[in-house]
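quick one before i forget lol
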Amino acid sequence: MTRRRPAQVRGGLAARRPAAFTVVDGLDAAAQLDVRALERSRLTPGAVAKALASWRQQVRLPRRYVADTAYVGCPCCCDSGHGRTELELALHALPRRSARQLRALVEPLDRTFLARTLPDPHTPDDRPWWERRC
């Protein structure tokens, strides 16, 4: 019986690719590893980077749109915080050092959002602070 070439053996196998991951700009390598571990265990891959980009985009909208889009959809199933809810989860779930680095990226956006919005007296107090703004 003749020996099959490795290419023939591997031809029937599915191609293995390394797992794709999203890099959060501004975090060092150790924090990136912590974010990836969190995304594997509690979120979806790339969720933190996507949430940060979404929150950044929401905060930089013209003021008239910030008020219109701050609360969208059903509070039980929609992310009305445009990624801020996932960022809050990551800030509490990450180790202290990694959370500090992520917080340094999120806090300037929070300050901008607070400066550009007003408290909404009609929103229930049990909602997060970013959903109680208009």
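fyi The helical segments are 6-11, 29-41, 47-59, 63-69, 84-93, 96-116.
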